[in-house]
Design a protein that fits this description.
By secondary structure, the chain is an alpha+beta fold. The protein is 19% helix and 27% strand. It has a 7-stranded antiparallel beta sheet. It starts with a helix and ends in a 19-residue tail after the last helix.
């Protein structure tokens, strides 16, 4: 080992220490599931691909993306849940013997952070069928559907969690799905 190795090692440690200091001082960015950050967030407008009931003081913003649109439901700038409009489902859904999606609203719950996937916090996902592009006489292929996914954290303070649950249960896609009872939302064991 020569002096070149020592110089490179010292330089590497100094560089790593300096970068760690820079990274540690960056502001926290808000978590947005599915958000790519390719386009800026803006008010969602009046036409939505789903309907829901919002308590007073809540608004909806839209972050468009290349293959996903993320609607953020928030109050006083604090996100309560997200509704994603996407062609590809966030999890494996159930189908009937003809390959059609049954039931049209399905849930999955993650009680712990999802390692390796952006360290998602504990959350509930509710998958609504938005549209089927399937002729009655053929089996569906991958991508023959559009979905609305409700993505809700399940580790919020009790009062905020109750509001988020109420909103999540009210989401439905007109003509395809109905709102689900809040009592039917899946919870962690």
């Amino acid at each position: 080992m020569g002096s070149g190795w020592i110089v490179r090692s010292v330089t590497g440690v100094a560089l790593a220490t300096g970068l760690a200091g820079c990274v540690g001082s960056l502001p926290d960015t808000p978590f947005v599931p599915g958000g790519s950050g390719a386009f800026p967030e803006r008010p969602a407008g009046e036409t939505l691909p789903f309907s829901l009931s919002l308590p007073d003081g809540f608004d909806i913003t839209l972050t468009p993306g290349l293959d996903i649109a993320t609607y953020t439901i928030k109050s006083a700038g604090r996100p309560y849940l997200y509704v994603l409009n996407q062609q590809f489902p966030a999890f494996d859904y159930r189908t009937d013997w003809k390959g059609r999606i049954r039931p049209r609203v399905q849930q999955r719950i993650f009680c712990h952070p999802v390692a390796g996937q952006g360290e998602f916090p504990p959350h509930r996902q509710i998958l609504h069928l938005q549209r089927e592009w399937i002729a009655p006489d053929r089996r569906p292929a991958f991508g023959d559907w559009d979905f609305i996914l409700v993505w809700e954290r399940i580790d919020l303070p009790a009062e905020q969690q109750a509001l988020a649950d109420q909103i999540a249960a009210s989401v439905h896609v007109p003509g395809m799905t109905a709102a689900i009872p809040q009592s039917a939302l899946m919870t962690c064991p």
